[in-house]
Design a protein that fits this description.
This protein is mostly helical and 163 residues long. It folds into two domains: 34 residues, no CATH class; 82 residues, Orthogonal Bundle (Helicase, Ruva Protein, domain 3). It contains seven helices and no strands.
């Protein structure tokens, strides 16, 4: 039997209950169209990257039990464009680790005297990047004005304003 056959034959009848199949993917285009037809995976829910307000809510949730006196979570949320919930959790975790290290170095009571600072967030953001950009490298070609053929008048105008 194939998965498609199993899905098609698992419909509810008066004598047998139906089966609900839930799946998730981050590459919906890689799914066989036969799976996406009516009666199989015919309902799709897209979970998008959180916007600034949603990122702020996520950061507030993840740090709700930690003092954050000098932290501007709004600016942190604004600087996290492209981060999903897991990325924000990793960012919070690294910021918390930074705060704990700082407290241990200062020989403070970690539970009573640790609080997140903007420096902790800065340290964390140097370690955590949005997962969507992982593995992407940008190569900037070495192009000079001599490589651009023709368009002499355009190059003159650009040189006036750019250089």
């Amino acid at each position: 039997y194939t998965k498609l056959y199993e899905m098609d034959s698992s419909k509810a009848t008066s004598s047998t209950p139906g089966v609900v199949v839930v799946a998730s993917t981050n590459s919906v285009d890689a799914i066989d169209p036969a799976l996406r037809r009516y009666g199989r995976f015919d309902i799709e829910i897209e979970v998008t990257v959180p916007n600034k307000k949603e990122r702020l809510q996520i950061l507030e949730l993840y740090t709700r039990k930690i003092p954050r006196n000098s932290c501007d979570l709004e600016s942190i949320a604004a600087s996290c464009n492209g981060y999903v919930g897991a990325d924000l959790w990793a960012l919070c975790r690294e910021a918390i680790k930074s705060a704990i290290r700082r407290s241990l170095i200062a020989k403070k009571d970690v539970k009573k005297e640790s609080s997140l600072t903007m420096e902790d967030w800065k340290s964390a953001s140097s370690l955590v990047q949005p997962s969507i950009t992982r593995g992407i490298t940008v190569e900037i070609p070495d192009v000079t004005w001599k490589d651009i053929g023709g368009l002499k008048d355009v190059k003159v105008v650009l040189c006036k304003f750019c250089i």
